[in-house]
Amino acid sequence: MAKMNLLQAINNALITAMTDDERVMVFGEDVGHFGGVFRATSNLQEKFGRGRCFNTPLTEQGIIGFANGLASQGSVPVAEIQFGDYIFPAFDQIVNETAKWRYRSGGQFSCGTLTIRTPYGGGIAGGHYHSQSPEAYFAHTPGLKIVIPRNPYQAKGLLLASIRDDNPVLFMEPKRLYRASVGEVPEEDYELPLGKAEVVSEGSDITLLAWGAQMEIIEKAAEMAQNDGISCEIIDLRSILPWDVETVCASVMKTGRLLINHEAPLTGGFASEVAATVQERCFLHLESPITRVCGLDTPYPLAHEKEYMPDHLKTYEAIKRCVNF
Amino acid sequence: MAKMNLLQAINNALITAMTDDERVMVFGEDVGHFGGVFRATSNLQEKFGRGRCFNTPLTEQGIIGFANGLASQGSVPVAEIQFGDYIFPAFDQIVNETAKWRYRSGGQFSCGTLTIRTPYGGGIAGGHYHSQSPEAYFAHTPGLKIVIPRNPYQAKGLLLASIRDDNPVLFMEPKRLYRASVGEVPEEDYELPLGKAEVVSEGSDITLLAWGAQMEIIEKAAEMAQNDGISCEIIDLRSILPWDVETVCASVMKTGRLLINHEAPLTGGFASEVAATVQERCFLHLESPITRVCGLDTPYPLAHEKEYMPDHLKTYEAIKRCVNF
Amino acid sequence: MKDRNHLSRVNVSHSATIIENGLIDIPMLQLLQADGTPHKDATLPDIDKETALKMYNTMQYVRVLDERMIAAQRQGRISFYLACTGEEASTVGSAAALQDVDMIMSQYREQGTLAYRGYTTEQFMNQMFSNEKEPNKGRQMPIHYGAKELNFMTISSPLGTQIPQASGYAYGQKMAGQEAITICYFGEGAASEGDFHAGLNMAAVLNCPVIFFCRNNGYAISTPAEEQFAGDGIASRGLGYGIKTIRVDGNDIMAVYAATQQARKIALAENCPVLIEAMTYRLAAHSTSDDPTGYRSKDEEEKWREKDPIRRFASWLQQQGWLDEAADQAHVEQTRQEVLTELKRVEKVPVCVIDEIIEDVYDTPPWHLQEQLRELKAHISK
Amino acid sequence: MKDRNHLSRVNVSHSATIIENGLIDIPMLQLLQADGTPHKDATLPDIDKETALKMYNTMQYVRVLDERMIAAQRQGRISFYLACTGEEASTVGSAAALQDVDMIMSQYREQGTLAYRGYTTEQFMNQMFSNEKEPNKGRQMPIHYGAKELNFMTISSPLGTQIPQASGYAYGQKMAGQEAITICYFGEGAASEGDFHAGLNMAAVLNCPVIFFCRNNGYAISTPAEEQFAGDGIASRGLGYGIKTIRVDGNDIMAVYAATQQARKIALAENCPVLIEAMTYRLAAHSTSDDPTGYRSKDEEEKWREKDPIRRFASWLQQQGWLDEAADQAHVEQTRQEVLTELKRVEKVPVCVIDEIIEDVYDTPPWHLQEQLRELKAHISK
Amino acid sequence: TSAGAAVRQGKALASPAVRRLAREHNINIADVAGSGKKGRVMKADIEAFVKGGANTTKQAAS
Ligand SMILES: Cc1ncc(C[n+]2csc(CCOP(=O)(O)OP(=O)(O)O)c2C)c(N)n1
Ligand SMILES: Cc1ncc(C[n+]2csc(CCOP(=O)(O)OP(=O)(O)O)c2C)c(N)n1
Ligand SMILES: [Mg+2]
Ligand SMILES: [Mg+2]
Ligand SMILES: [Mg+2]
């Protein structure tokens, strides 16, 4: 075990994957000798050579197009998009190509070896082009997996699993936690399961669901609620696609209440999918409406970032509303 | 009044708009002298000149980038994307640029005059690259409006309103109905309201909600249900963003049941947003779970198109399940 | 850290030089004259009779296939077709210059490459009838071929997407130490997509052994080349990327063959991309959904019909004494019959079982897809 | 229908010509030598003392602004800053060659154009402190300026997006019959984006009066130009689009001024785009979030520091007897003070009221945003 | 009250969990008078209804 922050855990996972399998290649804007603007790819070029860790020209559609071809050839690309906000030029390559490659070819070819890493999320005074949480934009795309870790331990285990999973994975890193989240991380190789939510703590009155950096927020809110005698079950969804309906529904069957928190705008956010599914599957168990505590339906603002954020206070208030419904 | 099919109604709306306002310009791939691959822009170049109706090079990101600039200048661009399936290269320009233009500039500049027209949807043996219904991909984007007509009358009135509305509008045309849907259309200028759903027929047992080509489907299913003595309220959402929560919720408060039908895959589809919102707002009125009858979570297939489709039979069965819950 | 100087190659001038069209001449390689006779000063590539006839027969084959399938579409037997009539030399000539290990990533009008690789009539038919025997499992529209065993990547409709993909594929081949390249086909229309720019630039910077083969056939559906770009074709862009570039007469199969051979050699030896622009003409309608009379004259088509690449090569073959006209006619007739027979046979093959609807979305169907399939089957059984 | 012939300009050759780097020379226009003396054979543009001094003072101004704001960022007074040190001549020189009616669409490192247009220190400060006086209402990070009254389009972070937008804007100007053009600035890094390709090609085909002004400053964050492209800079791409292109020494403000004047004239007279590539160097760190010692040597920076565009122009001005060194020093000092004073004053200006959070998403806030605001205010008041 | 009945428009106002309780007791929730706001049927109402008492029926309440 070693103490690592989230960036170090990711760097460590990449080193582990590249050591283990020489087909693994890491590339993107500034990821080469510089090691990435957040330094997640530090030292990889030195360690594994320019052929396996390199800068690309500044073109997200090109990065993913290139990565798709490379994956279909049998290599194992780990492509970085510098900010989640800049993934949209690659949207076509991801949604129309990566995701449909295997299906359209009847399984003859696939991009199963592809992993796309990108930092996402706000709380860093980044305004609307350095703060977006675009997971829901991708979650409507059969063929993709979407994975989001909440801390360094999760990050290493989930990233290794993503790289090795035989499906293309969009791996979204909560950049607010890059240096802020520090924890024990095994130095050896390990994987955490994709498609599985984790019940972080058990409770009986309400289920709180989030992912990534918002896990801290719901945990804080749960503590506040605890003081009011409200017992919260806390779940980290971890995989947005495919998501773990079973674990979430089992929890809601028990608690009768569900609150989902995400940073992205409310309308069309992934919480809507969760709410729609859970109300259908747990209908007769619901004691109160499923509640979404999310970003406002505006571009991510700068001066009013704090107000925009679905923080622990908003979450706490919503918990009380649910329980007292 | 004149009998028109949906394409003719759109063509007629474009002529009306271009006659009325010389700042209106229509462009896209093959829309010039050829009049578009579906012929929606027939004769416009002849009538209004090459300056106002023209072919562009084959680049969707360029078309929308160009249109954004043109709109911000004060012209009124109506840009065509040849198929909804090919809108994704323009995703960045739409989601990061068009939608955020006004907000980021504090209202100094905007793309309010922009309209993007694109045919969408399946049922034409087009496989996964000529059949997609991508509305939900855009519905997570504050700043955009999304409008979908169900017949020629609606198409003309909604398109004229979209072109003149001072917000960017994504206008999605159900291509399965292009020639199939024929109806009376006033020859004069008229507009239908954006952001307003339409209660197409009243009922008391269940609310059926859809848009575009799926309206036919739910109407057919409602007829079948009628024979079983089930009274369906049928609503055409018309605007996907912002959507008419009030009309839908008022209906569900009355019927106690809601079924939403769309062609796009279930997970992350717009039905999830509707279900999430309605379960929250109409919670105590719900007699049964809100049901989604949607496409499967696969790319749109070819050989099994019929099975994939959320057709009237699947809808009818689901109505019965709801009512007998 | 070594010092970098991005101006090291730049000369200084003291009055403004405007770089513009016409500054450089990009000539078009042509070896055979219209009548099949080689240009006097031309050196033809080494080619044996067998290869030459395989090339010729493949051109004839796709011509026949196109005719038959257009007819089949008119009869409502298939939903869609897209012919390459007039462009057979570009695709067959380039395919002939490759090795089987080379990956082909095509746009959609390159059935000539596939036929040259050995894709059978049965395989063509399976694809176009979307049946259960087709490896793509009937999931895509007609003409979206794919054949892993032939190193032919499954076609995808969105234009231009295969261009950066080809760069990536070629990079992977290089890293894996293979003696192989990737060839990527696209039209002059698709070359307007952003992906074209990304793909060529990345290939140049990352030293990918890939041939970018542009079929400049004058049209993108109804849009003529003059409304597609204002430069000197697509070849003039090669310079901007620092990519070695050859322009070739796409209706002269010998020129295409020679240029592609040379390009392959360069790509492998220097680990770099090469751009080929083949100047040709889409004699066919864009597809069976299209009617070109709406945007071009019969007269213009007629002029190009006279440049028929098949006839030109036939003349040369005859001059070599390698082709007998009567035998050729008989062979074409036989091909026609064979295509027709296969068509009739294959159209009866059923489509895949419904269970396939959820396969290949992921490596194995997750539980939610299994559930959706169960519900679908329960519904169907009602 | 007239016949089209996309081969009309193509010559035939009978042996393969490979078009490659080095085939054409794209020289760099330079008028002033390093010491400010004009090259003997150079013709300087007509320029009066007032304009020359305005250009000079603007360069000095942004140099001072950059220094102060970097310091302010270090002190934690603003969150972010991005300097243009070393590149002042490119942006100020080009801005000086424009008319006020011309639209400026910039990337982010073009504060020189804005200062030249008359954006005040107070305006700069308002933007960087995201306060209520800023027309963008504090919604974007520092340096994302926008000023409608100055025809300066609000900056957007995603790179390259402004390029096709500029083509569209210019098209609109032309259609509206305005005697005006659009200028679009971007870095050599952004020129790798697909939007670059789309924007230049569309401008050429659709005859848009737009100047594409590329600042080739050798780096995109840490990525050196040699890992960005393999061709001869960005200028070599102009030919591929059929766009008239000029390469200029970006550290020679007279050359930039002359080239941009000429480009503007061509763009207006011929209704066409012109591409300018200004060769320069990003002496600054990429931004305050960056530390260039991780990817380049001090030595390399030093070599470029010697090419300081401000010093070069100062020498020329002195040679004209238009600039007095002592007065200049005093003026710079005064600017420093002024910037500091404004900074101190403006940092106390409050941000917008919370109600603004839902404004400008749409023309008027729809009911759901009003509801969200009501809930937010109720929450805050708790 | 008649006002409550009007609001309910013949259908019960109740959370799904309460509806489940009604189902488990095999009673039609529409027959149960709600003691909650706007006539909302609460768990206690179901329990009371099960224990009997004509005055807990909807008819009696209106
Ligand atoms: C991204 C995308 N946009 C639009 C289309 C529709 N489309 C299909 S073929 C075509 C024209 C292609 O022209 P070109 O690349 O020159 O190839 P050619 O048909 O001439 O062989 C268009 C616009 C598409 N398939 N993909
Ligand atoms: C689409 C997009 N991708 C990535 C980034 C992150 N980014 C900001 S600046 C920059 C480098 C730009 O380099 P260049 O265009 O040469 O301009 P310069 O900074 O040298 O002036 C990058 C990669 C971005 N802003 N937008
Ligand atoms: Mg994987
Ligand atoms: Mg073409
Ligand atoms: Mg740069």
Automatic annotation (TrEMBL), chains A, B:
It holds the Pfam family Transket_pyr. It comes from Fluctibacter halophilus. SUPFAM superfamilies: Thiamin diphosphate-binding fold (THDP-binding), TK C-terminal domain-like. Residues 4-180 form the Transketolase-like pyrimidine-binding domain. Gene3D superfamilies: 3.40.50.920, 3.40.50.970. Keywords: Oxidoreductase, Thiamine pyrophosphate. This is 3-methyl-2-oxobutanoate dehydrogenase (2-methylpropanoyl-transferring). Its EC number is 1.2.4.4. It is an enzyme of class 1 (oxidoreductase). The keyword Oxidoreductase applies. Its cofactor is thiamine diphosphate. The keyword Oxidoreductase applies. It comes from the Bacteria. SMART domains: Transket_pyr (SM00861).
